[in-house]
Amino acid sequence: MDPAAMTRDVWRVDADAYPAGASVDEQIRFLLRYAVLAPSSHNSQPWEFVVGNGYVGVEAAEERRLSAADPDGRELHLGLGCAVETLRIAAHRFGVGCVVHTFDEGPTVARIDLGPACNPHRDGRLFDEITERYTDHRPFDGPPVSEAVLDDLREHAASLDVALRSVDDADARESVGDLQRRADRLQADSPAYRRELAAWIGSGALGASGLRARVGRAVVTHLDVGPVEGRRNAKLIADAPTLCVLSTADDTRGERVNAGRAYQRIALAASAEGLATHPLSQILERPAERRSLRSVLGIDGRPQHLFRVGAVEGRQEHTPRWPADAVTSTAR
Fold first, then answer.
1. Full domain range(s) for residue 303
2. What is the arithmetic mean of pLDDT over 211-226?
3. What is the Cα–Cα distance from 285 to 223, expressed in whole angstroms?
4. How far is residue 280's CA from residue 2's CA, in Å, rounded to a whole number?
5. Is position 288 within any domain?
6. How far apart are CA 259 and CA 110, in angstroms?
7. Bridge partners of 330?
8. How many structural domains does the chain have?
9. How many CB atoms lie within 10 A of CB 57?
10. In this structure, is residue 138 part of a structural domain?
């Protein structure tokens, strides 16, 4: 995939342009314009969509896999789950019913079968945030997220058999911060990790372009950024109005996809409340630190996603994406 083909224009989707009277194939391809706006680690956009007769198959784009940061594919599957849920929400917005299937084996990670008309239920407000949501790396302001909002976020997670827990205890926050510092240092000690991150920064996928992207790539490649990043991220954890972790009973591919689906619902619901989200993935990228996080927080299942939620002044620019047509093919 040519990085130069990524564009921020994809965020300007006109819902009024939905081809209601067109073929199912045309409708699916329009809905995929929303799916590609889903978040993913390093903005790697690890999805390939295969359009069949009334369904969409979702496969992993191996060339966009983060082999150093994500060797077991957890973050890849989370990203695919985010895209799946975005497509489902968009389909419901236009009255298209759909059923999501996940698969623990084989090239097709998920399949969305589009069916008869449905009622949009509570997804309407989530749909409105698809083109508004963004990941914010800045410090968050304001008080902790209210219990009413947290209960809503928990419901979104529970609907997919995913548990959401907020980390409120100061000692637990400090322990998570210690894990973050260690994970950042260990990741930065890996030349392969630094090369991979530098390549994504240099591609412009993380938002910087031109000279800024080249400088960022050089800094990550040649300087020891681990201690600095660790301190910065540990402070973000300590100061976060609300810190959350998503977990699943086990660690199957389908459960990871559902954790991604849950996170996208949560991110959209938070956006509807004027809140931003920011994943912190380094702890979960290190097997030992992931196990430690599970122990520190007393999680019975498997932690899948750690993220901050809070308010922040102003908006950040959306990151660019490859257009839907570039990541879509027709089933043979």
1. 147-310
2. 63
3. 21
4. 27
5. yes
6. 13
7. 51
8. 2
9. 19
10. no
In this structure, the answer to whether residues 196 and 299 fall within a common structural domain is yes
The tokens of 234 are what? 């540990």
Dist. CA 111–CA 21, nearest whole Å: 24
Beta strands in 91-201 (DSSP E): 96-102, 108-117, 163-166
Give the DSSP per-residue string, 300-326: SSEEEEEEEEEB-SS-PPPPPB--GGG
Q: How large is the angle between the packed helices 74-93 and 24-35, nearest 10 degrees?
A: 130
Confidence at residue 220, expressed as pLDDT on a 0 to 100 scale: 66
Percent of the chain with pLDDT over 70: 92
Name which of 268, 331, 264, 250 is nearest 58 in CA terms: 331
Strands (E), 126-271: 163-166, 242-248
Euclidean distance between CA atoms 296 and 274, whole angstroms: 30
Q: Read off the tokens for 277.
A: 């989200």
Residue 233 lies in a domain: yes
Distance of CA 163 to the CA centre of its chain: 16
Of 6, 4, 3, residue with least CA distance to 318: 6
The domain that contains 247 carries what CATH number?
3.40.109.10
CATH code for the domain in which residue 119 is found: 3.40.109.30
User: Taking the model in full, what pTM does it have?
Assistant: 0.94
Orientation angle between helical segments 170-188 and 226-239, nearest 10 degrees: 160
From 247, 251, 229, select the one nearest 167 (Cα to Cα). 247
Tokens encoding 173: 């926050």
**pLDDT score recorded for residue 26:** 93
Does residue 106 share a domain with residue 179? no
Answer yes or no: do 292 and 244 share one domain: yes
Co-location of 117 and 62 in the same domain: yes
Q: How many CB atoms neighbour CB 105 within 10 A?
A: 7
Mind listing the pLDDT tens digit for each residue in 122-140? Answer: 567 899 999 999 999 999 9
Same domain, 158 and 242: yes
Q: Quick one: 123 and 31 in the same domain?
A: yes
Residue 258's CB: how many other CB atoms inside 10 A?
A: 27
